[in-house]
Every structure is written in C-alpha cells, then in structure tokens.
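Summary: Need help interpreting a holo structure output

Steps to reproduce:
1. Submit the protein chain below together with the SMILES for adenosine-5'-triphosphate.
2. Request a joint structure prediction with the ligand placed.
3. Inspect the structure token block that comes back.

Expected: a single structure record containing both the chain and the bound molecule.
Actual: see attached output.

Input attached:
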Amino acid sequence: MTIFSATGISASYGRTRILHDVDLPELHDDEVLGLLGPNASGKSTLMRCLTGEKTHHGRIVLDGSDRDEMDVSAWHRRVATMPQTPPNPSVLMPTELMWSTARALDLDFSDRELADRIEDIFNRLGLDEFALSPLHVLSGGKRQLVGLALALLRDPDVLLLDEPTSALDLHWRMVVLDLVRERLTERGGVVIAALHDLDLAARYCDRIVLLEAGQIVASGTPGEVLTPDNLARVYHVETSVSRDEQGQPVVQVIRPIRSGKQVAR
Ligand SMILES: Nc1ncnc2c1ncn2[C@@H]1O[C@H](COP(=O)(O)OP(=O)(O)OP(=O)(O)O)[C@@H](O)[C@H]1O
Ligand SMILES: [Mg+2]
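--- attached output ---
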C-alpha cells in the first residue's frame, strides 16, 4: 500500500520564488495525479522538489516516513522520475544505458531478473528493435521512450513523469499511458504526471492539479478542474467542454484569448 503526500512545498531559484506553498492531494495506491499548467508555471520545478533534486521547504511523506528522514538510496529505490529532457543523443545504446543505470542505483535484482525486466520493458515500449542502436540515431520520440524505460527499470512505488508523451505520436501516447495504468493495476503505487494534453489528462488522471505561477488554482477530478473558466484563467484560451460516454470532460480549444478574459459564448 503506497500513500504519498507533499504539502507546503515552496522553492526558489536564487531570489526568485517559483513555488508558493503548494499542497498536493494525498495520493493512494492506483491513483494518477495530473499536474497541469502553462509553460513556466513550475511543474518541472515541483517534480524536482518531489525527487529531492531541488532544495525546497515543505513536507514530502511516503507511507508515513518523512523524506528528510529516509535513507537516500531507499528513497531512490521507491521513487523514480522521468525528466522532461530525454537522454542525450550519445553513442550509448539503450541496453547499455539501462544496465549502467541499474548498476549505479545498485538495484536489488539478480542479473537474470534485470535482463528479463529490460527485455519486458523494451518490448512493452516497442524499443526491442532499437535496443542495440546508439541513442544518436534514435528519433526524439524513441529517446523519450528510453527515458521512460529508465524510470520503469527500478519498479518504483512513486513514478514521476514530466511530460512523458510530449514527443510521441498518437499511438504511442496512448500505449505509454495505458502501460502506466496497467502497471498500477498489476503492482500498485502512484503516478504524478506533468501534462500539456488536456484530453489525455482527462482520460488517464484520477485527479488534476492546475498550477499558475507556482500556485495551485484548482484541484479535483478532471470534471471539476477542466472547466472553461479555469482554462481561460490559466491558459488564456476559449474552450468548449463536453462530456464523453463515461462522463469525462472533452475539451475543444476554440481560440486564444488576447485580453486574458473568457469570451462569452
Ligand atoms: N535552473 C533554473 N534556474 C533559474 N530559473 C529556473 C531554472 N529552472 C527553471 N527556472 C524558472 O522557473 C520557472 C518555472 O519553470 P519550470 O521549468 O518549473 O516550468 P514548467 O511548468 O515545467 O514549464 P514547461 O511547461 O515549459 O516545461 C520558470 O520561470 C523558469 O524560467
Ligand atoms: Mg517543465
């Protein structure tokens, strides 16, 4: 059973405050939280605070243990992140990168288990045929999938995904998020994903937090958060929101709002 919470998170770069007392909803096994907000609203900074990469104020608690009191390597075995930037296009092959990452993290798997895990992850992400190709010959989307493979390698309880589908085509966007969902059903855990695609967020997230300038402006179910007023306020776009057969919101973006105000329809 995984329970993850992050409360009162504040962070700065130099003298510039980026995050202002952000409280995420407490997440329980099988839940996916979508982190939405415009460019520069602080999504990646928040992700970096949650992994411990960025210094911050506030409390991050996993299964009753405060992150600050946990052994760092134990934390990194349970919490993995896929950063917004994919692995560099180097001469390394995806297989080599997976093995060297596993060694560096001192993962608790035998060589046989690791080989099986790597094969399984590559198969699920359609990377099997690229496993022995240098990263610099892979397309941007395939390198993004290698970034996800690296995060999945350690089989974390908390999976943090920073724009995991931004470089992927329509098919792979859904395959990736279906895989993330299936994984939660199979083994539990929680996922926090920064996303720009509102339809994917509505379809795959149980809860959504909408950030603007480092502050939460709305938090709740996709239906509660993805409203024309919230979207006008935060993204400065006029939208029409309908419901699909499951009652989930479907957002149609109509036009940007130059004045910053929602246009009455
Ligand atoms: N290393 C850094 N040093 C200084 N300022 C930074 C640094 N990284 C990010 N920032 C600033 O922090 C703010 C939030 O950036 P962040 O990358 O968290 O936004 P984001 O919501 O992830 O945006 P995007 O959707 O474009 O990825 C921005 O104003 C950005 O310029
Ligand atoms: Mg970002």
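--- end attachment ---

Reviewer comment: Residues 13, 18, 37, 39-45, 84 surround adenosine-5'-triphosphate (ligand 1) (CB under 6 Å). The CA atoms of residues 42 and 214 lie 5 Å apart.
Status: needs-info
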